[in-house]
């Protein structure tokens, strides 16, 4: 079994929920990264203080603002002092629990911007740093220890299964995550030659502000989900790039 050993990682939406879970777990690895960048839209704000328990490096990133994304990439690049970024975790996401009948242009656009376009723009902005990490790592195959883009998707985006339609329709969210899965596939095709592995994850149904905090048997606890995803990441190779997996490594239906 492999071990996740990266020098640097950046997680978007890292001030709470699954993103904060990633930051905490990365810092607690037996060989933690030297640089864990916790991306949040307001690093000086109260909500970002949640991640101040140990020393992640805060990175200002409003993921719907291209200028903010570019500034984040420049600032991270400066702090890495010439070395690359191994892991980009596109985690920030939103949902609007609309019914099909009251879905709106505004909600469709906002959710698509945050959940689909932002991961595209972030990956483009951080590409030079990801390439640098891949070039600076030994070995010829793809691996998260070299360079990887991790897109946090959802089973809600599965066209085949359409999970939980009776409970929550949220076409805006489903479409955004189905498109994110396609984006992951495209990135895997385009970035393979640069040595960058690309993966889409369903994190499970996790108790967060988005996932809710009900006591039932379905919702996965945060630590279990994030710990599971990091374990899966440590074992990915060429054949996995472009896949849609769950937090336990099971292949999800597109
Ligand atoms: P939360 O609602 O708990 O947290 C969302 C995070 O995203 C927050 O840190 C939030 O920051 C950030 N964010 C939202 N919009 C922006 C933005 N424009 N710029 C920067 N940051 C932003 O969600 P979860 O932690 O539950 O979800 C994380 C990811 O996992 C999402 O992509 C979600 O779709 C996915 N997912 C979650 C599931 C679950 O059961 N929880 C199930 C399947 C997928 P702020 O505090 O500033 O709002």
Polypeptide structure, described:
Belongs to the short-chain dehydrogenases/reductases (SDR) family. Pfam families: adh_short. With 254 residues, the chain is an alpha/beta fold. It has one domain (8-92, 112-154, 181-246): Rossmann fold, CATH 3.40.50. Helices cover 35% and strands 13% of the residues. The chain has five helices and seven strands; from the N terminus they run βαββαβαβαβαβ. It has a seven-stranded parallel sheet, with helices on both faces. α3 links the parallel β4 (87-90) and β5 (148-152). α1 crosses α5 (222-234) and α3 (105-135) runs parallel beside α4. The radius of gyration is 17 Å and the shape is globular. It binds NADPH dihydro-nicotinamide-adenine-dinucleotide phosphate. NADPH dihydro-nicotinamide-adenine-dinucleotide phosphate (NDP) binds at residues 12-13, 15-19, 41, 47, 61-64, 91-94, 114, 152, 154, 202-203, 205-206, 208-211.
Share of β-strand residues: 5-15%
Number of helices: 5
Radius of gyration: 17 Å
| Range of helix content | 25-40%
> What does the largest sheet look like?
7 strands, parallel
Name the CATH superfamily assignment: NAD(P)-binding Rossmann-like Domain
Q: Class, according to the CATH hierarchy?
A: Alpha Beta
Task: Provide the CATH topology.
Answer: Rossmann fold
Give me the CATH architecture, please: 3-Layer(aba) Sandwich
Number of strands: 7
Backbone structural class: alpha/beta
Task: Return the average pLDDT rounded to an integer.
Answer: 93
């Amino acid at each position: 079994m492999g071990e996740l050993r990266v020098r640097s990682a950046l997680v978007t939406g890292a001030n709470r929920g699954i993103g904060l879970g990633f930051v905490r777990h990365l810092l607690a690895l037996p060989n933690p990264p030297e640089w864990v960048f916790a991306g949040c839209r307001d690093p000086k704000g109260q909500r970002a203080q949640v991640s101040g328990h140990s020393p992640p490096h805060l990175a200002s990133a409003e993921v719907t603002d291209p200028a903010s994304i570019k500034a984040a990439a420049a600032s991270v690049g400066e702090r890495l002092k010439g070395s690359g970024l191994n892991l980009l975790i596109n985690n920030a996401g939103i949902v609007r629990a609309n019914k099909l009948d009251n879905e709106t242009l505004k909600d469709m656009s906002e959710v698509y911007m945050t959940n689909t376009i932002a991961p595209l723009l972030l990956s483009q902005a951080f590409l030079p740093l990801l390439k640098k990490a891949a070039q600076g790592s030994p070995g010829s195959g793809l691996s998260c220890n070299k360079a990887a883009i991790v897109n946090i998707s959802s089973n809600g985006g599965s066209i085949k299964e359409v999970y939980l339609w009776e409970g929550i329709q949220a076409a805006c969210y489903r479409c955004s995550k189905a498109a994110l899965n396609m984006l992951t596939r495209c990135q895997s095709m385009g970035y393979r030659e640069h040595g960058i592995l690309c993966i889409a994850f369903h994190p499970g149904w996790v108790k967060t502000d988005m996932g809710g905090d009900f006591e039932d048997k379905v919702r996965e606890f945060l630590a279990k989900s994030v710990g599971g995803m990091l374990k899966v990441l440590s074992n990915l190779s060429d054949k996995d790039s472009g896949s849609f997996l769950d937090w336990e490594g099971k292949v999800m239906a597109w």
